[in-house]
Structures are given as C-alpha cells and as structure tokens.
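User: Could you write out the 3D structure of this protein bound to flavin mononucleotide? I've included everything you need below.
Assistant: Certainly. Input first, then the structure.
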Amino acid sequence: MERPDLLPDPTAQFGRWLEEAQAAGVTMPDAMTLATADAGGRPSARTVLLKGADAEGFRFFTNTESRKGRELAENPRAALVFHWQQEPRRQVIVSGDVEPLSREESQAYFDTRPLGSRLGAWASRQSSVVPDREALERAFAEAEAEHGDDPPLPPWWGGYLLRPARFEFWQNRPNRLHDRFRYTRVPDGGWLLERLAP
Ligand SMILES: Cc1cc2nc3c(=O)[nH]c(=O)nc-3n(C[C@H](O)[C@H](O)[C@H](O)COP(=O)(O)O)c2cc1C
C-alpha cells in the first residue's frame, strides 16, 4: 500500500475498505471495539455496531445510562477499532470527540429495529446489576404488557456521533513490515497523511 492507493478523504477510504471486507466475507465487518474512559482516565471497551459513517462522523446506538454512556457524558471522547481478519487482513482505528445524536435521529433509528429489540431496550437497564435471568424476563414481559407492539423511544436509549480527528489504516504485510497510514485533521479542515512504522 502506497500513498497514491489512499483516497484523500479518510471516510471515503474507510468506506472502500468496509466494502472490501464485506466482499471478502468478513463476519460482521461493522462490529467495532468502542473504547471510552471516565473522567479519571480509567478506560473501558466493548463491541458495538457501526450504524453509518459519513462526512459528519461515525454513528452507533446504545443505552445512554450504560457504563459507556456515563463515560461519554463525563468525557466525550472515544476510539473505534475495526479488525478484519480475513485476507486482506486489515485494521482501522478512528478517534475523536463524541456527541449525542438528536432525539429525532435516535427515534428514526429506533423505529427501524425489530419489536423484540425495542422492547428489550425498555426491559434492560444496561450495565446495572440484575439478580437473575428471571428478573430480565419479567421486565421484558412488563414492557410488552405496557407498550404492546408500539414501544416509544426509551428516555435512556439513543445514538452517538463520533467526529473523527484521526484515522489509522493498517494493512498486514510480510515480515511484520505492515503498512500503517495515519490521517490527522488539520485546522483548515483538510487531512495530514503520514506513514507510521509498524
Ligand atoms: C457483535 C456485538 C455487537 C454489539 N452491538 C452493540 C450495540 O450496537 N449497542 C450496544 O449498546 N451494545 C452492543 N453490544 C453489547 C456491548 O458489547 C456491551 O456488552 C453493552 O453495550 C454494555 O456495555 P457497557 O457496560 O460497557 O456500556 C454488542 C456486542 C457484540 C458482541
């Protein structure tokens, strides 16, 4: 991989690699590790699904009162890691500031989810301690009884937008001399592209 192989716009480059991962048969190429940290800098990470990447940024949806939601409220920065194991073996890392999506945008996405997922969002206070599985099943049945087949958007559920400040594209190469290219956003809104040692 050489500089001329990379598109000037890193989001477009990401889109190209995501399509190539799909075409290569990667399982869940849209699954990404989301790393956050609390106000004290203590990190945490988990997998979430990418629900769109465009000029504005990268979108994902979750419970806003979960551990990640609380950390993003205290410290609105995050990193995303995509690892696509099949050939051509690649990794993309994206980091930047994070903001909540509007209620309208969260509602629009929530409405596309299967009924069971929408009810599940009412039943689960994500990341809180539960006594047993029955408590979860009971909460689901209560949500079903209360909301039927048209649950509204729970106040504790929504999306986030990560606005990228940095991207790193990693391509496996022989002898561990992998290719790494970093894009860093510069003040004029353009991107600085640099090769990094593997
Ligand atoms: C493949 C995969 C995809 C997932 N996608 C999401 C997602 O899009 N949103 C979400 O809230 N949790 C998702 N999860 C669950 C999270 O990994 C995590 O358990 C949950 O969000 C609670 O994280 P937290 O306690 O760190 O906030 C996914 C898990 C896996 C394995």
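The first helix runs from residue 10 to 23.
User: Perfect, thank you.
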